[in-house]
Design brief:
globular
Length: 358
């Protein structure tokens, strides 16, 4: 069976690519033929996944479609749509998808989509209409708090923890480090505009200058050929302060599992790190990131103040010992999230059976 995977895959973003490839590989193992909308050609070739750039052609040739994760229920204000070409394109993609689904009379099922876990969020009118339409059937959510939003649109969705909590079931991940190397590896994935006046970061880089066993990795999560450069990377030639540009999902997973800790402003870099048992601290994260951490009862991992984070890092570096996951997170909750996230794939099995027999 040909199954379409539609999502926000046109920006070479690590988290979105990871979800698309994970779902596509699962469908292939089940004997089906996934076709991913606008997956990067190089990644598609590496993982032997068919990709399609025309939404009309994607819908026409598939039996049904899946929305493969992403912040599809995150609000997008009118002002933002006026000033942001990416925000306008995001909404236009939904309009084009709706037209294709109507034309070819196909159904689509959102899997592990999310918002910010808020009851009062308002989506743009065209997106509300999309999700309320008859061709958007049942689906799964990654945050319990989003259930009220889908209920408002007259849909019966099911909550399971984010699909990426189960990432180790779908990729072979290996550490890049030697055992007991005595080093502290810190990953930083930060938004440039949020770094103005954040002196803790200058202090951290200066500390790396004095402490050779401290290694910093400044991570950018978009493929370089997409030329999207909003993530912070300092200009320095220090051997233990390294820029890292996402180029391959497996290589990035290997780095994330090798870190002692990651500080990120983004959801899926941090969440994937957690799934690999790397402690994640959120710095100036969006509402969807905070909502995910609060569902894990991990408010202590949320930092909106540079002063708070500076104090935490100073204690970490002075101790000379890597922080453990148990110091910040309830490990049992993480195990439960990993097990619960497998249910997204069981749900996909249910969709396949339903569409084969209909």
């Amino acid at each position: 069976m040909k199954i379409g995977i539609w999502g926000n895959y046109c920006y070479g973003n690590f988290g979105d690519d990871l979800m698309a490839i994970s779902i596509a590989n699962y469908l292939k193992k089940k004997g089906h033929q996934p076709i991913v909308f606008r997956l990067d050609r190089r990644l598609a070739e590496k993982f032997d996944i068919e990709t399609e750039t025309s939404v009309s052609a994607l819908v026409a040739q598939t039996s049904f479609l899946i929305i493969g994760g992403g912040g599809m229920l995150v609000g997008n204000s009118g002002i933002r749509r006026i000033f942001s070409p990416i925000a306008r394109k995001f909404e236009n993609d939904f309009k084009q998808l709706k037209k294709a689904l109507e034309k070819f009379k196909k159904n689509i099922y959102p899997i592990s989509i999310g918002g910010a876990g808020k009851k009062d969020v308002r989506l743009p009118r065209s997106r509300e209409r999309f999700f309320a339409s008859n061709f958007v059937r049942e689906g799964t959510l990654r945050l319990k708090g989003d259930l009220s939003l889908t209920e408002r649109m007259g849909k019966s969705f099911t909550y399971f923890p984010d699909i990426l909590f189960d990432i180790e079931s779908h990729f072979k991940v290996r550490s890049l480090r030697k055992p007991h190397d005595g080093e502290i590896w810190i990953g930083l994935n930060l938004i440039s505009k949020d770094m103005e006046g954040e002196y803790w970061l200058d202090k951290l880089v200066e500390e790396a200058r004095k402490v050779p066993h401290l290694k910093l990795f400044f991570i950018r999560t978009h493929l370089e050929n997409y030329q999207i450069n909003y993530e912070y990377c300092p200009e320095t030639s220090l051997p233990n302060v390294k820029p890292y540009n996402y180029s391959d999902v497996e290589d990035t997973l290997n780095l994330l599992t090798s870190l002692d800790i990651i500080i990120s402003s983004k959801l899926h870099v941090g969440l994937t790190s957690l799934a690999l048992r790397t402690p994640f601290l959120s710095f100036k994260g969006k509402d969807k990131t905070k909502a995910q951490l609060r569902e894990l009862k991990a408010d202590q991992a949320i930092f909106d103040s540079g002063d708070q984070l500076d104090e935490f890092l100073e204690q970490l570096i002075n101790s000379g010992r890597p922080i453990t996951l148990e110091q910040i997170y309830d490990v049992e909750k993480l195990r439960a999230a990993s097990e619960g996230s497998k249910k997204h794939y069981q749900y996909i099995d249910h969709l396949i059976l339903e569409n084969m027999t209909s």
